Amino acid sequence: MPKLAVIHHRHEDWVAALSEAEPRLEIRGWHPRDAIEADSAWLADTEALFTWRFPEGFLKKMPRLRWIQNSGAGVDHLVQHPEIAPEILITRADGQFGLWMARYVCGHLLAEAQRLEECSIAQRQARWEGKLLPEDLTGQSALVVGFGRIGRQIGRALRELGLEVHGFVRSGRADEEFPLHGIAELAQHLPKARLLVLCAPLTDETRGMVDARLLAHGHAGLTLINVGRGDQVVVPDLLEALDSNHLGHAVLDVFSSEPLAETSPLWAHPKVTITPHHSGPSTPKAMIPDLLENLRRYAEGLLPRDLVDRGRGY
Ligand code: GLV
Q1: Is the full-model pTM beyond 0.90?
Q2: Together in a domain, 146 and 294
Q3: Using CA positions, which residue lies closest to atom 1 of ligand 1?
């Protein structure tokens, strides 16, 4: 087993869970805030690091670092990190994020379709609102941008709810399960779409992809759900589209800068729902089996699974 350093805001949970699952593992953890003061002697010959974010300059303490296991699915912050040498392996986590995010997307869509807010207002006024029928989602179209493991699981859940799902990827390809298109074709599908879900990695192609040009093809019955990255949406264009009825509702879990600033106009907008980047939480329960498998592979000299292609960006 390699020695494993953990730099994470919940390092105690990760160290406890990993030590219990693999008692032979030599593991120590620090909060990112304290990482610069972490035990340099112990870190000096440690080859593996489990982290989400670490402070500037920290990697100087790990001259033997060979492998970074990310605690999340998105790796944009690591791929672009100037302190991570090109030969260092980066792996992303699976963590059943697809299942979590499918629940998030379906939950928010169903809240709209079942008109939960209106039902709750009517209830508080003791009003029997017999005309408050749920919306029929059958045959309505859902566009899912990013169609790896996470996107496919979201797509399957939406299909179970009766929607017709289209996946969007870097370049369209044949698929046995769903029609898959290139991201460049998104605009032509938007006029008929009920739902646009973003769950793609942040790359040069997806940065700013939801902008005024794309949203000009939207309509008042369209809902956007972003569980990808905040930088994929141009916020002033989004607000403009909501105000001009080119978009009906934006459900945002991710933002360019987090936590979202108190001064952001998104908070108070009546057609925006904000959640605190919680659609795909990293939990030891979901992630430990994959982490242990990767540690074993590394110990045996094999490449760990879910390796990031740094050239591609994910
Ligand atoms: C969270 O955003 C993740 O990438 O896992």
Answers
A1: yes
A2: no
A3: 72
